[in-house]
Write a structure and sequence with these properties.
Shape: elongated
Distance between the termini: 44 Å
Radius of gyration: 23 Å
Oligomer: single chain
Number of strands: 16
Order of helices and strands: HEEHEHEHEHHEEHEHEEHEHEHEEEE
Strand content: 15-25%
Structural class: alpha/beta
Number of helices: 11
Strand order of the largest sheet: 11-10-9-8-12-6-13-16-15
Largest sheet: 9 strands, mixed
Amino acid sequence: MPATTLPRPFTPADQTHMARALALAEGAIALSEPNPRVGCVITSSDGRVLGEGFTQQAGGPHAEIMALRDAAARGADVRGATAYVTLEPCSHHGRTPPCCDALVAAGLARVVAAVQDPNELVSGRGTARLRAAGIQVEVGLGEQGSRELNIGFFSRMQRGRPWVRLKAAVSLDGRSALENGLSQWITGEAARTDGHAWRRRAGAVLTGIGTVRDDDPRLDVRLVPTPRQPLRVVLDSRLTLSPTARILDAPGSVLVLSAAEPDGKRADALRARGADVLAMGGADGRIDLPAALAELARRGVNELHVEAGRTVSGAFAAQRLVDEYLVYMAPKLIGRGRDLAGFGPLETLDDAVALQFHDVARVGADLRLLARP
């Protein structure tokens, strides 16, 4: 169909197939990083599903290729078919050939994409190549769902930094720990399992040296299945992390950020445990958080999951670096204790970090609050 033809309104069948493609894209969580999470459904002119798939690990086939392979395995002829894909098909040679070329070669007649790819190597070029080949292309169906699923990828492509999600578990009176530092367990088992599902989404999980000293956490994903472990990041200005800390245990990789050049026996001991040690000091002698975010983006981290104590959480909050607060609230009162984030005091309420609730859900006996600036 010529590129000048106006797109027709999306039908209920279009909406059903795109909803399926978005559901398939969720299968790429924890698998496709640093690539986006994409699903694809290929249907015949009468609406029968011919093939479907989602993006595999980096360097593996993208969603469109998986759907074409699935159709071939079913013995289906995709000539004249429609592909519903949750992100604009890629048009450049990366680790794999362009998906738009594969769709053209397969003889598809129509492509419905949820949203334009924010990657400047693709953005608009994929749809242009499809249209130049005579394929009808429509964009916009399922856009919000695709953006939410790939919120970190969009952040890294458009802002040069990961989407920062700060997770905390607090009591009804806002305490993240007792006054003596004890915090296990404020929330219940269901909330802890749900928290691991959010860890699984992330390309990296970050904490501070204080949390490592106090709790000796592993900060890996254990309570839900995962095909890979996120990078674990420790902010350690003076490089005091013990080589015996559990956070250094396999599986997964560890990055330790210090404020000073990481030379000497301490750094060597951490490197001997497999950690990457990097200086990221700012003018104030502390770790430069914006520079750290830029470094994580350079390493392909789309979503950063912060699980830290009041000092690190407070630093992220005070510098307005948190994109999303993931807070589990338990129905209990603690009284005197430690705050979620230590910053301030503020002069006026106008200086507060203003948030809007994005989602509120019951998780076991607790509440899960998702808030964004």
